[in-house]
Design a protein that fits this description.
The structure is a homodimer. Chain A has about 210 residues and is mainly alpha-helical. Chain A has one domain: Tetracycline Repressor, domain 2, CATH 1.10.357. Chain A contains nine helices and no strands. Chain A starts with 17 loop residues before the first helix and ends with a helix. Chains A and B meet through α1, α6, α7, α8 and α9 of A and α1, α6, α7, α8 and α9 of B.
């Protein structure tokens, strides 16, 4: 027993303990991604998500106070994972930033459910009353700041031309990524999303290079 | 009476005639655009759309057989209007094609409801079971054919470099347009969508020029 003690400490607790709760919480979040991807936020129902996971609606509400709380939790978890994996370090150059964006696109090509969910919720959030409206406003601000910061440092280091417009170029890059995701979700075998992004960013870097 | 006879011939018919029917049909289609934009297809309801227009659900079903029929009718009318206005003539050059795309973006900046509807339905249609899935597959095919055709003719005429990849470049252009629409719907006063597209296409044309 000693040797195994540190491995899955939480599952050694009684039924209903932290581990079971965490695992159930994760399954609810995963199911919600698929429901939002297929039905959108408004037509998704807590009752159907709970049923898919095999819990009661009351059980679901133990983890997430409301439909809106579940939505924000799904989005925040999704971002946390991506930030940790792709955006934890400040890119050393514009070229370095662009490589990371291509890596992210390649990663996304392996999770069509997540891509479809993002497409649908980002589109729905265009309505000012949508519960994810403020979230997506902030998210685009963060993405634009991250990319335009890398472009500005590229100008400062002499990597990029001094007249590079970091903010507007970052907006264009975000548009290419989102627009490719929209096309790709319709036809996931029709083209290579990461290669398309790479070709665009390679050309952009050649034009912007000092 | 003679002088007025040709002006509004349909309204001279009895109540319930073609003119009243056409006008009601148009109001239903307009209301549906706003409902899809705000709620998505699945959470939109024929009963609520009918209520907004001031007709009964039965009255709505007189014009559109089903929820899916109304969806397809909204999309087809939207496309017909755009095709007539922007894509009736084959562009004489890549530069000509790009100018038309900027005109379309400027036109779209005047109709946020239509833009939000397009964003939401295109995103939802990524799910293979969505009633607009086939429609959006065909629509992207048409857009890619139109733009890649203009690029290929640009190569043939000596306007563009011979190694221009029409298909992949068209995909990128569509992505920029859609991605900008997604950002713009979240913040319609934050940036000029048509100017952003123009800056992108101007740079692209310089790179592709023979």
């Amino acid at each position: 027993m000693e040797a195994n003690q540190g491995r899955r400490p939480r599952t050694s607790r009684a039924r209903g303990g932290y581990a079971v709760g965490d695992e159930r919480r994760t399954r609810i979040l995963d199911a919600a991604v698929e429901h939002y991807a297929q039905w959108g936020f408004h037509a998704s129902s807590l009752a159907r998500i709970a049923k898919d996971v095999g819990v009661t609606q009351g059980g679901l509400l133990h983890h997430f106070r409301s439909k809106e709380d579940l939505l924000v939790s799904v989005l925040e978890r999704s971002d946390e994972q991506d930030v940790e994996r792709f955006f934890a370090a400040e890119p050393a150059s514009a070229a370095d930033c662009f490589r990371t964006l291509v890596d992210l696109a390649a990663h996304n090509a392996g999770r069509p459910g997540r891509v479809r969910m993002f497409n649908v919720l980002a589109a729905e959030a265009g309505s000012p009353g949508h519960p994810a409206h403020a979230y997506f406003e902030r998210r685009y601000r963060d993405v634009l700041d991250h990319v335009s910061g890398a472009l500005r440092r590229g100008v400062d280091s002499g990597e990029l031309r001094p007249d590079t417009d970091g903010e507007q170029t970052a907006r264009e890059i975000a548009a290419v990524m989102d627009g490719l995701q929209l096309q790709w979700a319709l036809d996931t075998t029709g083209f290579d999303m990461a290669e398309r992004l790479r070709a665009y960013l390679d050309r952009l870097l050649r034009v912007l290079a000092a």
